[in-house]
Amino acid sequence: MNFVSNMPEQAEQLQCAKHGTYETRYTQMMGRYLMNDQCPKCVADANAAARLQEQAEQKRQSAELLRRQRLDAGVSLRNCAVKFEDYFPADKDQAANLKVVQDFTANIAEGGRGNIVMCGGVGTGKTMLACAAVNALLSKGKRCRIIKLIDLIRELKDTWRRGAETNEIKLIKHYSNIDLLVLDEVGLQFDSDTEKLFIFDVIDGRYQNMLPTILISNLDITGVKQAIGERVVDRLREDGGKVLAFRGDSQRKPFDGVSSGVVVS
Question: The whole model's pTM is what?
Answer without folding.
Answer: 0.77
